[in-house]
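Take a record.
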Amino acid sequence: MRVAIIGGTGFVGGHLTDALLAAGHEVSLLVRAGSESKIRQSDRVLATSGDISSQEALRSVMEGCSAVIYNVGILREFPSRGITFEESQYEGLVRTVDAAREVGLKRLLLMSANGVKQPGTPYQETKFRAEEYARQSGLDVTVLRPSVIFGDPEGKMEFATQLFTDMVRPPIPAVSFFSGRSPAKGAVVMSPVHIEDVASAFVVALENDRTIGQTFALGGPEVLSWQTMVRRIAAATGRNKWLLPMPIWIMRVGATLFDWLPFFPVTRGQLTMLEEGNTADPEVLRQLIGRDLQDFSVDALGYLRE
């Protein structure tokens, strides 16, 4: 079938494109002007110029498609540049759903995130409201909620690459976040999930009508602390790294004062989500795709080696 991807030129979108093409599907992408060079397998996809602010462009990219994947999300807002959670994660989804109904497209797969809720951080709330709008749209909807995603970014940015760039590569101690009063009792934990497993989940969900109306939390095979993840990244890149324990409340004080500055490393919302953790039962994803999951191992992180 032909599948439209809204948000198909970034790290996750590129892997979704590859997985869909490998499974025998056709792909249509909505591509912002100037981003044509970011298209994976450009000779095999149909690109429509435009962005999520244009209802006409959304209708155009979905013409002739049997399904649409909404895969737009940001980790940080820049309101002065018009980059907001509201626009990217909610309003864009609303326009996509409305455009799908206008062209008679019924199948929607929504890339959400593990831990979304209302009330929550602005990131969590806009993702949650997008889910609710999609479910009430009358379309055949499947929602996928991954934990943090890792894997070869092929020149783009992803979770492990960001940690390597910000914390492991610099010749200073890496920060080891924890909540509460001690690192032992307040460890930040996550279930990092490999991009190939996430992409497979989308393909399986697309091809299996039994996933319609369902929500899947996608986590990798291990629940890992922040310290363990940083140490594995260091080991994968041949480095020894000293970790400096850092209470989240101290970083929150700094973020309260300075997270409006683009260079400040974390926002208040990101710290809140770190404190909450980001884990998921690996059996959900394992049963969905029917195979063992790739772990956050030194070998799997080999793409980080310079």
